[in-house]
Amino acid sequence: MKRGSTLFLKAVILLIGIGALAGIIIFPQLEGRNINADLFNIYFQDPFLAYVYTASIPFFVALYHAFQLLGYIGQNKVFSLDSVRALQTIKYCAIILNILIVMAALYIRIFHAKGDDPAGFIALCIVTTFISVVIAAATAVFERLLQSAVDIKKENDLTV
Q: Taking the model in full, what pTM does it have?
C-alpha cells in the first residue's frame, strides 16, 4: 500500500513537472501579442519571458526534491538527514518563488498597466503567492518535526 501511494505521488509530481514545462514553452506562442511573431521575437526579446523562465528554476528544483523525498520514503529512509535537507530545500524554493511572484506582480502593475487593469494577472499572482506561502509553512513544520525525530533516533541509536 505504501509503495503504491508513493509511486502514485511520484507520478503526480512528474505530471505536474511535465505540464508546467509544456505550459511555459507553449503558452508564449499562444499569447495575444505574440500570435503572429516569430520564435526569435517571442523567446529572446521579451524580458518578462526570460524572467518567467528564470523564476521557474526554484519550482522545478522543489519538484525534484519532492520526488527525491518520496524516494526516501519508499526506501524507509524518512528519518534521515537527507529527508530533512530535501524539506529544507523545498521550503527555501517556496520562499524564493513567493518573492519572485510578488516581484513579477509589481513589475506588471508598475510598468505595464498604463491604462489597463491587470486584475486577472494580479489575482493569479495572489493565488500562487498564497499557495507558495502555504507550502513554505507546511514544509517548515514538517522539517522541524522530522529534524526532532532524526535527533531522537540518533540518541536512541547511541544508547543501544
A: 0.85
Which of 87, 85, 99 is closest to 132 using CA atoms?
Answer: 99
Cα 80 vs. chain centroid, distance in angstroms? Answer: 23
| Distance (Å, whole) CA 9 – CA 79 | 19
pLDDT at residue number 1: 45
Domain spans of the chain, in order of start: 2-159
Q: By CB neighbour count within 10 A (0-12 exposed, 13-18 middle, 19+ buried), where does 138 fall? A: middle
- Give every CB contact of residue 117 below 8 A, 6+ residues apart in sequence: none
Distance CA 137, CA 150 (A): 20
DSSP code for 75: T
Q: With the CA atoms of 87, 48, 43 and 132 taken in that order, what torsion angle do they form, in degrees rounded to the nearest 10?
A: 20
Tens digit of each residue's pLDDT (9 = 90 or more) over 44-96: 777 778 888 899 999 999 999 999 999 999 888 888 899 999 999 999 999 99
Question: What's the pLDDT at 112?
Answer: 72
Tell me how crowded residue 131 is: count the other CB atoms within 10 A of its CB.
14
